[in-house]
Amino acid sequence: xxxFEPSAEGRVSAHFELVEVGLLRLAxxxxxxxxxAADAHAPGPTADPALKRLLPDAYRGDPEAAAEFRRFTAGxxxxxxxxxxxxxxxxxxxxxxxxxxxxxxxxxLHDSPDDAPLAIVLDxxxxxxxxxxxxxxxxxxxxxxxxxxDGRPRRDDDEAPFLRDVYEWFGMVQESLVYAIDV
Length: 183
Prior knowledge:
By secondary structure, this protein is mainly alpha-helical. It has one domain. The protein is 57% helix and 7% strand. A 3-stranded antiparallel β-sheet has the order 1-2-3. The radius of gyration is 18 Å and the shape is globular. This is DUF2017 domain-containing protein.
């Protein structure tokens, strides 16, 4: 399992297996697409429910005040979230997941014995982008899994076990990163 380690220069580093890099790239790219397609001022009833979790109402009991607050803050918040996610993608590199497959699932599973883990080194600003993006990824997955205030997923279909595993793995990555900067 990947583990972030602090360095003397204030950086943190970890080695990710290529399947982990592929999973992070895919999920983060999908997050960027979701955020870039969002209407910052009116998430409305047809908006992806994950956006409501990523951009919750500031005033739950007052729709007018919530809309006014969103009008002044949501655009900048979405821009920052996209920027953070793009920092994560930049630190993971730009190469394709798998040159022999256009299918993301197959690309994630492609792993050969010659594939060495990828070293990731993060400066303090990159660490903050990673932490924020991991939070956004987990919030999005929490919505997909229908995780309520009790912390239990209510979704129970064929995709749920995979999504739960990814949700928990993102949590472990985030926890490792928090411990590495808390030294």
